[in-house]
Design brief:
The protein is of the alpha/beta class. The chain has one domain: Alpha/Beta hydrolase fold, catalytic domain (Rossmann fold), CATH 3.40.50. It is built from six helices and four strands. The protein has helices at residues 25-41, 59-68, 72-76, 112-127, 142-147, 155-164; strands at residues 52-55, 83-87, 102-107, 132-137. The chain has a four-stranded parallel sheet, sandwiched between helices. The longest helix has 17 residues, at 25-41. The protein is globular, with a radius of gyration of 15 Å.
């Protein structure tokens, strides 16, 4: 869907938490390095480093959020605002460091706790004066939410294309 809409699509991989002994930091470091690499190398694959958007689902959503609150200038010598938008669930303790608009989405058939966390997070971002869109997809479960990202008519795909200006 993204390629057909005119975007480049880069799928990141990261180590499994079992392989890190339960330590999430190596996974977060991998995600940050990968996003920095994409920015630094975008022109090599005819991408536009000034139009970098990131997203993730489930554990990838959390890693996306960690990347969104990264101090790119301090940690990588890159522009602080290099990421233009995010589509994920973010760490609530780092809201002040958000520099890009985000979309928070959940399915109506996900667990009540998962729904609550997403609603609370979106409310906290909004309360901090940061741009956020909350999407509640009524009849979607956890796995259907990620599948909808590849569909321009699905709740996640539609929101991602709109954020990127690729309607």
């Amino acid at each position: 869907m993204f390629v057909k809409a005119g975007a480049h699509f880069v799928a990141l991989d990261f180590v499994n938490v079992k392989e890190t002994g339960g330590d999430l930091r190596p996974m977060a470091a991998q995600a940050r390095r990968a996003v920095a690499w994409v920015y630094q190398n975008a022109e090599r694959f005819h991408g536009d480093p000034q139009r970098l958007y990131i997203g993730g689902h489930s554990s990838g959503g959390h890693l996306c959020a960690v990347a969104l609150v990264t101090d790119w200038a301090k940690e990588f010598g890159l522009p602080a605002d290099m990421v233009k938008g995010g589509f994920c669930m973010s760490p609530a303790r780092q809201i002040a460091r958000l520099r890009a608009p985000i979309v928070v989405a959940y399915g109506g058939n996900e667990t009540p706790e998962f729904q609550r966390q997403n609603r609370d997070f979106a409310a906290a971002v909004k309360g901090a004066g940061k741009p956020v869109e909350l999407i509640a997809a009524a009849d979607f479960n956890h796995f259907e939410m990620v599948e909808s990202l590849g569909n321009p008519y699905g709740p996640n795909g539609r929101a991602a294309l709109a954020m990127m200006g690729l309607g």
